[in-house]
Amino acid sequence: MNDVEYLIGSPPIDTKPSRPFSDEICEFATALCAELMKSAKEFPDIGAFAFYCRKANVQRLKASFGDLQNRLGRGVCFHISPSNIPVNFAFSWLFSLFAGNSNIVRVPSRNFAQTDVICEALKKVLKNYKGIEKRNLFVRYASDLKTTKEFSLMSDARMIWGGDETIASIKAIRAKPRCIDIAFADRYSIAIINAESIVKSDEKTIAMLAKDFYNDTYLVDQNACSSPHLILWVNANETAKTRFWNAIFHYAQKRYKMQTAIAIDKYVRLCEDAIELDLHKAARHGFALYVVSLRSLPNEVERLREAGGYFYEYDLKNIEELEAFVTDKFQTLTYFGIEAETLRGFIVNNSLKGIDRIVPIGRALDMEIVWDGFNLIETLSRIVRAV
């Protein structure tokens, strides 16, 4: 593996598993939080990761799993992180570390400043935690199936993040017979808004909603699987829509810096949509925001996606309409003005194959230990049972 850049650690690593949320791991996470908070202002996504590592949150997570005395990590977990989300690799690694595993982490091949900042913080903190240092390896290499094969043969679990083709190619690579694969495939996300709540809300609430929606979408150019592309309205009215989209535009135009290529892609997509979709209207709010209103939804709703502040909207007669188009491709449903339990009850009672997360607008990008329907602590550890 001559083309591998070892960012942290060097082979061979210690492969012995530990108990989930061991005292050493919890203490280490708290120390890492303190180090990363130094960069939180410059990089909000690093700040979010650091905040997740804080002592109170780690203790809350540990307590939520109850008695972990009879669990051990599976061994070595190999992480193939996505190339378009800078901090994803860190969350993937942290969840596996909490579960008690040693880790081989392939960081994004693209050069993100966040990757360097996190790795430098890790190196600094790991000096005081030699046991954990020996169990973790962070590497960077270009797409190379041979290297991926060698790391796969060392692995007891693989966390695979990426598009459907990437996941299929990695799943085809031989690993240990008992190696488990957790695949985070390409998913699609939507938002649902009660128009009546928009009309009734005060200016402060609408301003906060605009900020939260911006954070869910523009911060990652809508590239995250959990970023909504389609906005569904219940109790729809034009007054609410105008108020909402105007707030989004005014917030985004002051902050979002759009690349020329994305601006061109948005215009081309608008032309294509005008030909291919059942449009009611299309509104352009400067360069920062395009909103395409649909009379009806296409057969494959998950194809309604674009970047750089390009959104689709559709008026629901009632939430029962979700059943007609939600597939297993759907991941996150963000909401405003509707009770989360109402939405969850509908999904569970009607046995929908998709939508694993229901969170308020503003929390679409919040990484969680339960992700894509997987409880990662339980999946990445094993039970030692005695009868």
Output the keywords:
single chain, alpha/beta, Aldehyde Dehydrogenase, Chain A, domain 1, 7-stranded mixed beta sheet, 39% helix
Describe this structure in words.
This protein is of the alpha/beta class. It folds into 2 domains: 5-186 and 372-383, Aldehyde Dehydrogenase, Chain A, domain 1 (3-Layer(aba) Sandwich); 188-360, Aldehyde Dehydrogenase, Chain A, domain 2, CATH 3.40.309.10. Helix content is 39%, strand content 21%. The chain contains 15 helices and 17 strands. It has helices spanning 23-36, 44-52, 55-64, 88-98, 113-126, 130-133, 145-152, 164-171, 195-200, 203-217, 238-253, 260-276, 322-325, 340-349, 376-379; strands spanning 5-8, 71-73, 76-80, 102-106, 136-140, 157-161, 180-184, 188-194, 228-234, 279-285, 289-294, 310-315, 330-336, 357-360, 370-371, 374-375, 381-383. It has a 7-stranded mixed beta sheet with strand order 10-11-12-9-8-13-14, with helices on both faces. It has a 6-stranded mixed beta sheet with strand order 1-5-4-3-6-7, with helices on both faces. It has a two-stranded antiparallel sheet with strand order 2-17. Strand 15 (370-371) and strand 16 form a beta hairpin.
Assembly annotation: single chain
Radius of gyration: 22 Å
Q: Structural class from helices and strands?
A: alpha/beta
Indicate the percent of residues in helices.
Answer: 25-40%
Summary of the model, kept short:
With 387 residues, this protein is of the alpha/beta class. Helices cover 39% and strands 21% of the residues. The termini are far apart.
